[in-house]
Amino acid sequence: MLRIADSHTHIFDEAFDLDGDEMVSRALSRGVEKMLLPNIDLDTLSALWATHSRFPDLTDIAIGIHPTSITSSYKEDVQKIALQLKEGLHGCVAIGEIGLDYYWDKTFYTEQQKALHLQIELALEHCLPIVLHTREAHKEMLQCIASYDETSLKGVFHSFTGTEEELKELLSFERFYIGINGVVTFKKSPLREFIAQIPLERLLVETDAPYLAPTPYRGKRNEPSYIINTLQEIAHAYQKPLEEIAEATYSNYLRLFHA
């Protein structure tokens, strides 16, 4: 039996309201033993807690404000996250999902960067790793993380879909892992040509459910059980057995979030 860790999945999303138990059963039947649930904004906290309470052994949580949820009130929003952390959060193993996203809107270009720094400081204060979202902001993210080079900051660059050169730049941050999801299975994705450059001890696998379903489910709602398709593609890229990739990424998950 495989041991699989889905390092990034939003199963608390309303997309799973009607069949949450069945979805979890399908994941368990495929060998999924751990899932990290990264928060989105203040409004998703209640669903996040409720899902973790239902599946406390299966799920871990990350708490933070997603970059696309950052507004002019970012200071107050991050302060509310900070207060929750001070109260003590059972099952919280990371700060996330945080980052920079300039794909849709650059209205809060500066605020996103300031909010990211505030939340990184929270991570350092509480000795937690971070879960980083980056979209159309590679240069800015490099500058941000490089500024913490002298600290103990660690984490994962979630949902990597960039170029070979961008991968090399991210790998220069030795305390960070790279998260690969279903995009690697897409017909036109170049990822499979170079992801084996990621040292196996720094690789994580994820679904980002309900988004980015792998082939042959592309365009449908994603779910953790589909992670097997992504693992198969990664195993082919590394030219290693599926079992070895699954076990390595499971061990990496524990090392990053439960060390």
Automatic annotation (TrEMBL):
One of its GO terms (cellular component) is cytosol. Coiled coil: none annotated. One of its GO terms (molecular function) is hydrolase activity, acting on ester bonds. The keyword Cell membrane does not apply. Transmembrane segments: none annotated. The keyword rRNA-binding does not apply. A divalent metal cation 2 binds at H133, H158. It comes from the Bacteria. Belongs to the metallo-dependent hydrolases superfamily. TatD-type hydrolase family. This is TatD DNase family protein.
